[in-house]
Amino acid sequence: xxxxxxxxxxxxxxxxxxxxxxxxxxxxxxxxxxxxxxxxxxxxxxxxxxxxxxxxxxxxxxxxxxxxxxxxxxxxxxxxxxxxxxxxxxxxxxxxxxxxxxxxxxxxxxxxxxxxxxxxxxxxxxxxxxxxxxxxxxxxxxxxxxxxxxxxxxxxxxxxxxxxxxxxxxxxxxxxxxxxxxxxxxxxxxxxxxxxxxxxxxxxxxxxxxxxxxxxxxxxxxxxxxxxxxxxxxxxxxxxxxxxxxxxxxxxxxxxxxxxxxxxxxxxxxxxxxxxxxxxxxxxxxxxxxxxxxxxxxxxxxx
Length: 303
Fold this sequence. Notes:
Blueprint lengths: L2 H20 L1 H4 L3 E5 L3 H4 L16 E4 L5 H12 L4 E2 L2 E2 L12 E4 H9 L8 H6 L2 H8 L1 E6 L3 H11 L3 H28 L3 H22 L10 H5 L8 H10 L3 H17 L10 H10 L4 H4 L7
Parallel strand pairs: 2-5
Antiparallel strand pairs: 1-2, 1-6, 3-4
Helix pairs in contact: 5-7, 7-8, 9-10, 9-13, 9-14, 10-12, 10-13, 12-13
């Protein structure tokens, strides 16, 4: 059984009934779900994934101003649940613990991912935070949200990146793709530096993955799942096979074909109207479309 399905059943059949019976007044302030890091939060877990950290459990999120005694009380309700659910061991953690499941504050969940109590609060934070951290903050599923605040913050993280920040990140990806794939890959091979050429091809693929997610207005997950998630995107998903091919057997023709596809999408989104085959001038075209003066003044590769 998939982790998200198991967690939802645990909430509906075990944890929620226990809360309704023992602390119903806390239910209306609680959000419940399985969120954050892990293949199960992306729906990608399988039998191989279950060889570690596979347990029945749920996360409970309460506002940061919840009195500590209430957090401990809810933890006690959780910890009194059976040690097995549908044949799967349950994981129990005390309020003092640092486990994946159990009682948390909303702020405590977001702090290690966004550096604050929720979504980034400035363009500088949006620009600085790695994509995988934002992806983890929005990953998973919320089964119940009494106040709606946890859901609101996750939605803001998922969709709230300022357009000028997105454009700055796209410009950086374009410049770095040009440098690594369209320039350094070929030069390294001409120098007879095959190892360096393959590193350049790998950098090209990494930056292109980031570019594709930005063009889809999505946060790219941890690299382990980047290709799988890319294949589910509505725009440029077909490049996944080509990028895997570049990793396996890099060639100048393959790099140029991928670059051309990216340029076509940049043009389709109104981010450039140049006719160059090389990505670097397109990066500067994107920069010119940034309205925030401070962001526009940053180095093209920053972000």
